């Protein structure tokens, strides 16, 4: 009598997916799109990117979702452009300009001196246009209802900036690169940098280049990911 092996249950060990998030997409948009395209039962991302930021988004599927916290804890590297002399409530171009400030007094020496105060361990207050919850409410929901930073208490947080470099050759636009710890808000750095320069500032562009050992250079676009699944 022939004895047949008992079929082994299929175990979804999961995948680690690197995506180059496009402009205007939310991290949730990307997660939802990949879940449908890859027919994943379980998927999540390891660190939100703002809609107006591009770059590396790490997604985990199946049992790999248990590792999300580990990826979120890794250091991050960004490149971007901040502009001195104007501000917006969101500190980026999601909202309209609300004030203008002088920039004529800002020299390379001032920029270099201010930079030193934004390296190492620093304290920062997250921007009101963020996903942090206060009394059960998302800050960006409160902001869109007209609540300002003066109307609510937002707790400061300690973060670490390992590297912060600026190219001022296109002043008042400053190109920058930064390496920082988990939980660092680049828009808060931009806002505080403008204030420290005796002016104001907003974030014109932001791109996440790296999370730990994972680089955006090895990431797929959403279209490339979908094409790879269709070819399987």
Protein model, in words:
The strands form 3 sheets. Strands 1, 2, 3, 4, 7, 10, 11, 12 and 13 form a 9-stranded mixed β-sheet that branches. A two-stranded antiparallel ribbon has the order 5-6. By secondary structure, the protein is α+β, with helices and mostly antiparallel strands. The longest helix is centred in the N-terminal third of the chain and has 12 residues, at 27-38. It has 6 helices and 13 strands. The mean pLDDT is 91. It folds into 2 domains: 16-73 and 213-230, Pseudouridine synthase (2-Layer Sandwich); 76-128 and 155-211, 2-Layer Sandwich (Pseudouridine synthase), CATH 3.30.2350. Helix 1 (27-38) runs parallel beside helix 6 (222-230).
Total separate domains: 2
Radius of gyration, taken over Cα atoms and rounded to an integer in Å: 21 Å
Largest sheet: 9 strands, mixed
Q: What CATH first level of the largest domain would be assigned?
A: Alpha Beta
> At the third CATH level, what is the topology name of the largest domain?
Pseudouridine synthase
CATH architecture assignment name of the largest domain? 2-Layer Sandwich
Beta-strand fraction estimate = 25-35%
Tally of DSSP β-strands: 13
Span of the ends, CA to CA? 38 Å
Order of helices and strands: EHEEHEEEHEEEHEEHEEH
Q: What spatial form do the alpha-carbon principal axes imply? A: globular
| SS content category | alpha+beta
Amount of helix: 10-25%
Number of helical runs? 6
Mean pLDDT: 91
Q: Can you tell me the CATH superfamily of the largest domain?
A: Pseudouridine synthase
